Structure to design on (170 residues):
């Protein structure tokens, strides 16, 4: 039977594993792509392209490092708190996964900001000139899309009422 402690262990172990994957890919990008021309994986469609991003998604908020670190600390506090309030039964496992994805993305990019002063991005869809991104960005994007899908199509109001944070006080 799952307990709150084992559930939080899963949150932190899952996050650590995903952050490790993110950091290894960023290390490889820095080691093999920095100072090089883009490396096409699908010519004219998708390439590996090293970029040091001092902003957020789509290059917004350039140079606001302190803001991003504060936001990451906020996420590091809020996500585990909310995660602990989600019921442990199987029906809510998808929300647990979403929380792990959000936390992993925030931690992965926060590590870059703290230690480098920028986030290392390296995936580039050249066909549509999409902004360059990284593995942590994928975690956040997939987590956000999954969260929206779950709220719109999977969980009903009765399900969400089981989450401790959303219960109405009597």
């Amino acid at each position: 039977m799952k307990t709150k402690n084992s559930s939080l262990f899963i949150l932190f172990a899952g996050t650590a594993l995903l952050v490790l994957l993110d950091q290894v890919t960023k290390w490889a990008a820095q080691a093999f792509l920095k100072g090089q021309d883009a490396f096409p994986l699908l010519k004219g469609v998708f390439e590996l392209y090293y970029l040091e991003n001092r902003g957020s998604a789509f290059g917004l908020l350039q140079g606001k490092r302190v803001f991003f670190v504060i936001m990451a600390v906020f996420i590091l506090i809020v996500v585990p708190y909310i995660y602990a309030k989600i019921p442990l039964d199987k029906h809510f496992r998808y929300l647990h996964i979403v929380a792990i994805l959000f936390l992993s993305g925030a931690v992965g990019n926060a590590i870059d900001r703290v230690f480098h002063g920028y986030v290392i991005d390296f995936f580039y869809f050249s066909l549509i000139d999409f902004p360059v991104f990284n593995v942590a960005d994928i975690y956040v994007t997939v987590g956000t899309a999954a969260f929206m899908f779950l709220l719109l199509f999977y969980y009903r109001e009765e399900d969400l009422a089981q989450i401790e944070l959303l219960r109405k006080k009597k």
Summary: Residues 4-32 form the longest helix (29 residues). Helices lie at 4-32, 65-85, 93-116, 135-154, 157-161. The mean pLDDT is 89.
